[in-house]
Amino acid sequence: MARRHPGTLTEEEKLLRKSALTHCPELRTAAELTSSFAEMLTTLGGEDLPDWITEAGASKLPGISTFAIGLNSDFDAVTAGLTTDWNSGPVEGAVNRIKMLKRQMFGRAGFTLLRKRVLLA
To answer: Are 114 and 101 in contact (CB under 8 A)?
Structure first.
């Protein structure tokens, strides 16, 4: 089964997905919880987080209920991340790029060349 947004599935994939979700209630619950969490992420709907955590915890699905407990342990930070449009994505991307360059050059050159690659890349 394809792991992408349900709206981009072909007709055959949609039928397979519907059949699988019909025959397995746990899978249907997991799909619904995953979709609703993805919706919160994309629409910054952090006000729905307490209800989602309650529903996910009640589902007794091991991965999802554990994830919900983890979200609950730092509730204020997660809510802020799901309600504000501020994020550290650009900074994390720059750090990731620098780490990749460093890994590529490990053991090959010194700081001077690494600095030059970071500045020119």
So the answer is: yes
